[in-house]
Each structure stands twice: as C-alpha cells, then as structure tokens.
Amino acid sequence: MSSDRPKLEFWYEFASTYSYLSVMRIETLAAKAGVAVAWKPFLLGPIFHAQGWDTSPFNLYPAKGKHMVRDIERIAGDRGLRFALPAKFPQNSLTAARLAIVGTDEDWVAPFTRAVYLAQFADGADISNRGVLEALLAGLGLDPAPTLARIEQADIKDRLKRQTGEAQARGIFGAPSFLVGDELFWGDDRLEQAVAWAKQG
Amino acid sequence: MSSDRPKLEFWYEFASTYSYLSVMRIETLAAKAGVAVAWKPFLLGPIFHAQGWDTSPFNLYPAKGKHMVRDIERIAGDRGLRFALPAKFPQNSLTAARLAIVGTDEDWVAPFTRAVYLAQFADGADISNRGVLEALLAGLGLDPAPTLARIEQADIKDRLKRQTGEAQARGIFGAPSFLVGDELFWGDDRLEQAVAWAKQG
Question: Global pTM?
Fold first, then answer.
C-alpha cells in the first residue's frame, strides 16, 4: 500500500453483527477503488454505557434484535456468507480487540479480523475463549503464546482504551463506522458511499 | 392498480426523516417492478413510548442525531432532493396521519403524503399547523374544511390507533418499514430489497 492512496478509516467492534458484513468485503471494495483501509478496532461497550445501555440495543429492544437477525440472514445469503447469531450475544470482545491492536503493528490485522468474525458469526465460536483465539492465531501462521503475552502489556491495553476514546470523541456511536477525515458514515449500507467519498478526496 | 399485482405494505410515520427518502421514490420503484404499494401511515410515538423513549432516538442520542442529518443531506443531495431538519423535531404528526387515513379511503394518500413530507423536510413547515395542512389539501384540489371535519369522527381516530397497534404487533419498531406478508424490512436502505421480495412473491 503506498501512502499516497486516499485513506478510509474502518472502525469496528468485534461483537457487532453488522461489522461482520463490512469486514468480509471492505478490502476488495477499497482495493478496486484504489483506497487504503486503516483498520480501527474499538470497544462499543463504553460508548453504549455512556448513553445508558448495559448491553446491545438488539437485546434491549427485542423487535429490533429480531429484525437484525433476519436482515443479516437475507444480506449474508445474497453475498454467499454463512451467518448465525452465536449462543451468547454480544460476546466479550476485549481480548480479540487487544490482539487486533498488536495485529495493526505487525500487519496481520485484516486476516486476523476476518478469521475472528468468521469463527463467531459463521461457526458460532466464543471469541472470548483463549483457546479459540490461540487456534485462530496459529491458523494464520502466528505463534499464539508470545502474541497473547504481548496483550498483557500496558501499552497495548492503553492504546485500545485511547482508540475507543477517539471513536467517541469523533462522533462514532455504533459499528461499523467509516471516517474519511471528519466525514462519518455509519453502517455496512454506507460502505460503498464511504469508499467513493475517500476516492473523490 | 390491478388487485393481482404483488403487494408491498409501506409503513411510515409523518415525523420520520428517513421515511421522507422512501416516500419520494417508492411509487416509481414499485411501478417499475409491477408491485402495488399499500400506504400505511402510523404513529411511532406509542411504539417508542412502549420501549421507554419520550422523543425521537435522534434527540435522545445526539451523536446519532448529528449523523442522521448529515447522512440524509448526502443521500438527498445525490437524489436531487432538498432536505433540512425543521426547527422543531420531531413534529406532532397526529393530524397529518389522520388525514392520510381519509386519503387512503379516497385514493389521494400518495400525493398527500408526498406534499406533507416536502412541506416539512424541504420547506421547514410545521405540519401540526392546521393552516399548513389546509393549504396542502387545497393544493391537491381537495376541499379542506370537510376533510378536516372528517378526521374529528371517531372511526378515523380509531383506525389510526388500530393501524399503530397493528404495526407494533407485526414487529415494526421504526420507520420507514416495509412488509411483504410477514417479511419485515426496515429503513429506506431496504426499499429495493423489499420491492424485489414482493415481485418474486
């Protein structure tokens, strides 16, 4: 990726169902448009908590949750993706998000992120489970033990906290979200528009 | 409209900004696909109230509200529509919704609905104002006084109440919503998909 390509920031939360839809297609869409993607994992929990929610709005508002599942089933079906809501929803995404911060430094954030979403939303795995994450890391040719040790260090924990704070400060209230400079786009439905916006500069 | 065309139910709330986007294009999209539209005005207020909200989520969650305005500005711009949030939001839509029930019986619900949304979201008018609604009715060649008298009758008031109850019972939690049988689609982003679903039967 050359640094002079226009840039799209992709803000996602590992427990977010609609983020799965974008995770699986953002790289090809952006590549076709000549746009570079900056992967920005963050945590929605603190942002939801700040607006008085203690869980996903899809749990708080059951009609909305029921529609979300059916909506993603229809879209995933059209795109040839498997989708099923895991037994526990939303999952605790803290460990996966910290690993993704390491992946950002070591340039494996994109394949790692796709692997985590597929495990969770296609195969029903529990992504808060250390063994699940170890297997995903190993599957990517990485050494799980030192990678999992790395996320216990304060700098990684702090960076995820700061990234979550930055999301909130820049107006992000849900996931997936896309930023081109200060221009905010929310939802997988806006991915094409966000890519086009980045391209046009 | 022949009765053997596939049918799409269009559920909308007059104060809803995203409903504006669908109101202005649903008839042409459906006509091209050979699909008949059943216009179903209802009130979101009681549905929001039942889930603990006393106003629009766009007011309750300011970051979401800020994004909504910008999002609709971008989409309306692409579609050649004017859009500005009226000074008071959300507006009281009760009178407009009752008039639309009368319009359903007398076959002017579609042009009336478009006129109300344009007045509100293109021209900033207050659609709870009786004078505004009188002018819109007159502009459609209708006689405002008897039409406004009609909505004071109990059967019209009851039908709007029942229609709102039906929306809630059938899983509707926001607007615009589209129903093809029991298949629910939420949001202007799903209009094409809902029309295609109706067409395929």
Answer: 0.95
